[in-house]
Write a structure and sequence with these properties.
783 residues, seven-stranded mixed sheet, Peptidase_M1_dom, M1 family metallopeptidase, Peptidase_M1_aminopeptidases
Length: 783
């Protein structure tokens, strides 16, 4: 199994070679510090990763009035924006985001989209190709100063520059107004982050509305104006401010939005207000609008409109949803001594999943994220079910996850729905509060949030089937062709394989840091410190990297460099193992070992055949040719041997005698870094008696040679096998070379018929099996 060598030179001869062999670098220094890649610290952003003494950020306050046209599926709006210049700079113009212009007929996104025409195409694919037929861009009606004087403005696709009549100096504010309208997209045909769904059965619409108003761009100390065009992948970066939004909708619609409802007496019935009051002290969700009431509203139309007014303080954005189909439930939790009203809005098509889980998931998410980051300070948290699969805004998010029409659902659908709600509610923390630049770095938003989503899922249910977070789940992506990958530190619009790159890989990296590199105590303190430092501010990647190191006292530059700046992957291999024992010099012991080795050595094929073919040798025939060595046994112990041994022992110090007779085993492991990604070396040794020992060697073992190192393990008893990463901690892409002796890695393949019918989900299968039995019935889709 292992090669057993007797050392004639003792312990010093064993260790001198391997120690010297490591002093060669492989040509690249994966432990080089990141100083050259990170921006120079200054008074705005310090070397520790904290905001500096001169840190500043801008402010934008909004008073918005919008009207929803349920007949034309259109929005008309006007707003007053008060922009406060808290920078040290004089501004002669302002930049405003027109993100809805991604649906303009002449948008950059439409003109640069790539696709292929295939022999068979779905109508949905055709709708995507013909998206230019729909005109959903902003129609800017006016841009004026307070008092009505027109402001010169220039529209550059999804950005609008407003030229100020007088420069805006530090500590000054300016108020201007914008009026606009646009058409709402059918989300099922033209998938965006906002849109409507039409329900042909009851001829109703459900609207999830966001990016519906011109929004101030961010101006900061890092890149000035962030006016990179909105192309679809890179989301948003926005300044904080206070919002007051009045939404005029059909009189029988229920409207949920960011913030707190300001006029419940005008828009809610006495019964709804009473139920809402009950929900504030409830420990489980209370229905404000029941399914029966929502179904009645679906069947009739109440003429006229109502205006719902919401207010939100210190938020970076605003979104809302409106439909007469909405069921509405709520419950209250307490977070850091303050009440948080957790709510859900959903059509009957979402039941029974949504009524059972949504608001409970919202509450669980707020509690768990607060524990790992900062306390949630907003008064409400809302989950809305509609056509948008998953999108986040302050205090409100849009989520998918709908059961079958018969009310059944698969486990994948259930956990997918819970996960998307956790993820989107979690976005309240990243980036709605810890306000990173999504237009530039998607991973600071999606990756950090996906990591805490994983922690939250695991606290929801034991062995929750999380899709992302566990290192083993990223292995398939890490194995893909490097030409199909980009480093995490890639601009949002240039990322390939967006889901694995922006969500899964950064989340997995943080999990590896927490579990394997740093340990939970150090990691959790550092991660929480980052959240506390940058809450309600605009962090950059360097602020995160530096804070994680500063608050933990751990040099992680090697990890950021490998995991975030390259497409290297983990593939560590045990190339070989050599087994050594110490020559005790005791002739009785060592000669017996030699005899055993000689006797157990296999005979060669020639030796075996010679026994059969050569009946008598010449020496057998002529005994006079024999001499001393024909009868000499080199493994026999003589009195002279014993005397020499006693003399040797007496020359040793007591501690040397102890080492000589300790019976230790020395194993020299030749370790190779095939994938290029520096990682800790986690070695599991299995002993002859079946017991195991786990050794976690820090990644710094590779600092002198990034590609190949030799490590010696000293054990009191024989080892029968070695294995790397036995608990799948490092996303190792090839487990076949992780063991010595080598182990075969089992896999499977599936046989199937060319045409397959859809398999019913387990709930449907159970329902079918119960039919025909006494008392058997199918599962209802309503509650």
């Amino acid at each position: 199994m292992f090669r057993n060598l007797l050392l004639a030179t003792g312990l010093l001869g064993l260790t001198a070679g391997p120690l010297l062999a490591q002093s060669t670098n492989s040509g690249t220094d994966k432990f080089q510090q990141l100083d050259q890649l990170l921006p120079t610290p200054n008074s705005f952003r310090t070397a520790s990763g904290a905001p500096g003494a001169d840190y500043w950020q801008q402010r934008a306050d909004y008073n918005i009035r919008v009207t929803l046209d349920d007949n034309k599926q259109a929005i008309t709006g006007s707003e007053d924006i008060t922009y406060t210049n808290l920078s040290p700079d004089v501004l002669t113009y302002l930049w405003v985001q027109l993100d809805q212009n991604i649906l303009d007929k002449n948008s950059i996104t439409t003109s640069t989209q790539v696709a292929e025409v295939k022999d068979k195409m779905s109508f949905q694919a055709m709708d995507y190709l013909m998206r230019s037929d729909f005109d959903g861009g902003f129609k800017i009606e006016s841009v004026t100063m307070k008092g009505g004087k027109a402001l010169k403005h220039t529209i550059n696709h999804t950005m609008m520059r407003i030229d100020l009549p007088t420069p805006l100096r530090p500590k000054q504010a300016v108020t201007f107004s914008v009026a606009w309208h646009y058409n709402i997209n059918d989300q099922l045909k033209l998938s965006q982050r906002s849109g409507y769904e039409f329900f042909p059965e009851d001829k109703n619409y459900l609207y999830e509305i966001a990016q519906f108003y011109p929004r101030m761009a961010v101006y900061n100390d890092v890149r000035g104006w962030q006016h990179k065009q909105f192309l679809g992948s890179g989301e948003f970066t926005l300044p904080f401010g206070d919002y007051r939004v009045s939404i005029t909708a059909p009189a029988d619609h229920v409207v949920g939005a960011t913030g707190v409802l300001q006029n419940p007496e005008q828009v809610l019935s006495a019964t709804q207000r009473k139920r809402l009051a009950q929900a504030r002290g409830a420990k489980k969700p209370v229905l404000i609008v029941t399914q029966m009431e929502a179904e009645r509203a679906e069947q009739k139309r109440v003429p006229g409109t109502k205006t719902w007014t919401y207010a939100a303080k210190n938020v970076r954005d605003f979104a809302w949803a409106s439909s007469r189909k909405f069921i509405w439930d709520a419950m209250e939790i307490e977070q850091a001594g303050s009440p948080v009203l957790c709510m859900s809005y959903y059509p009957k098509e979402g039941n029974p999943l949504w009524g059972q889980y949504s608001t409970e998931v919202v509450a669980h998410t707020i509690k768990t994220y607060s524990k790992h980051t900062i306390d949630y300070e907003y008064p409400v948290a809302i989950s809305v079910h509609g056509p948008v699969g998953g999108m986040e805004y302050p205090m409100l998010c849009f989520n998918g996850g709908r059961p079958e029409k018969d009310g059944t659902y698969s486990a994948e659908r259930k956990y997918g729905m819970i996960s998307v709600i956790i993820h989107e509610v979690g976005h309240n923390f990243f980036p709605m509060i810890i306000n990173s630049d999504e237009r530039q770095w998607s991973w600071m938003d999606e990756g950090l949030n996906t990591f805490v989503q994983y922690l939250t899922e695991q606290e929801w249910e034991r062995n929750y089937p999380s899709r992302r977070g566990e290192p083993k789940n990223i292995v398939e992506y890490m194995r893909t062709d490097k030409s199909l990958q980009t480093p995490i530190m890639t601009n949002s619009e240039s990322v390939l394989q967006f889901g694995p790159n922006a969500y899964a890989k950064p989340a997995t990296g943080l999990n590896i840091l927490r579990e394997t590199v740093m340990g939970r105590e150090l990691f959790d303190h550092a991660f929480k410190t980052y959240a506390q430092r940058w809450a309600y501010k605009h962090p950059e990647p360097a602020d995160f990297f530096r804070t994680m190191e500063d608050a933990s006292g751990t040099d992680l530059d090697w990890f950021w460099r490998g995991w975030f700046y390259t497409t290297d992957y983990t593939d560590l291999s045990i190339e070989s193992v050599k087994w050594y024992t110490v020559d005790s010099k005791n002739p009785e012991i060592e000669n017996a070992k030699t005899r055993e080795m000689l006797n157990s050595a296999p005979q060669t094929l020639s030796q075996q055949r010679n026994l059969q073919d050569i009946k008598k040798t010449l020496v057998d025939d002529k005994p006079e040719l024999k001499d001393f060595y024909n009868n000499y046994d080199p493994t026999a112990t003589t009195d002279a041997d014993k005397a020499r041994y006693q003399q040797y022992v007496q020359s040793l110090k007591p501690e040397q005698q102890s080492r000589l007779n300790a019976g230790l085993h020395f194993y020299e492991l030749d370790l190779r870094n095939i994938g290029g990604l520096t990682m800790p070396v986690i070695v599991q040794m299995t002993y002859e008696d079946g017991k195991t020992e786990l050794v976690n060697i820090p990644a710094e073992i590779w600092r002198k040679n990034n590609e190949r190192v030799t490590k010696v393990f000293i054990t009191p008893k024989p080892v029968v096998s070695f294995a790397l990463d036995p608990y799948l901690e490092t996303a190792d892409t090839d487990m076949s070379n992780n063991s010595f002796p080598r182990k075969l890695a089992p896999s499977r393949f599936e046989l199937y018929q060319q045409q397959q019918q859809a398999t019913p989900n387990p709930m449907q299968q159970q329902s079918t099996s119960q039919q025909g039995k006494p008392g058997g019935s199918s599962t209802s889709g309503t509650n």
